[in-house]
Amino acid sequence: MLSAALVGQRRRWQGVLDARWTMAHAAGLGRARPEHLDTTQPGGVVAHPLFPVAPEWALLTGEDSALDLGLGKEESGRGVHAAHELVLHRPIDAGAGIELVAVVSGLERSRAGTRMTIDFSAVDRAGAALWDTRMTSVHLGVDLEGPDASPPLFGERRPVGPVKVVEVVEVSIGAGDAHVYSECARIWNPIHTDPAAARAVGLPGTILHGTATLAHGVSAVMDVHGAAATEVVGVQGGLRAMVGLPSTLRVEVGRAKVGVTGLRLVGFTVLNAAGEPAVHGGEVVLHPR
Fold this sequence. Notes:
Helices cover 19% and strands 37% of the residues. With 289 residues, it is α+β, with helices and mostly antiparallel strands. It has a single domain (2-286), classed as Thiol Ester Dehydrase, Chain A. The radius of gyration is 18 Å and the shape is globular. The protein starts with a strand and ends with a strand. The mean pLDDT is 94.
């Protein structure tokens, strides 16, 4: 059981986002762009826009730094990533020393279980903001003790309307891709790599990480619209259908719309092999041109 008393709990992590880590994360997604891998370019390499999920994992599962949710192993295994929102205040350069804070900002009952909201914020050594993340998960069948607590507003999230598709990108996911992503991103959960562990929590087999699925959608948007990682200032998406291994993803990329601030808004949807939405309501926010 989760307790409403958890709201407000925070944990802190400090570390360095070295080039070995940022390059491995990009390579684990099959991204071979020079901006991610060529350390000889002026200014060095830049991380993939979804890289923040990698250091954030330490505040979810790290031995010394993780949030203490008071759940046993069986209940912890019922947590399902349901939605992800990211605001990038500036590109993430390899070698940056950061301080990352996680806060439990909301716990709410739902028909499926308890919905938990965790907010992350990262700053550099000088205290300048790097990124903010809101991660929403649902602990299936887990009750909540105490009153519901809705999270505060986050960023400028907007409902994403139907995607007017301009191009469909197919992404081949190999049988071992979850292993590669786990080790390269340093995000390990046995349901992605161990069939016995996956079946023990009711899954038919291993599945691709939701963060990897979301990252493939973001990558497709960047490719279709010719955008560099340095142009991405925001990402959002709801995570739904599972992606089995091996598999093929279909990313439906929309046209760019210009918002009132001049930012370019690109909607996208990621479909699994059965045609079900693995990511729905996806949107990438790009700098003006």
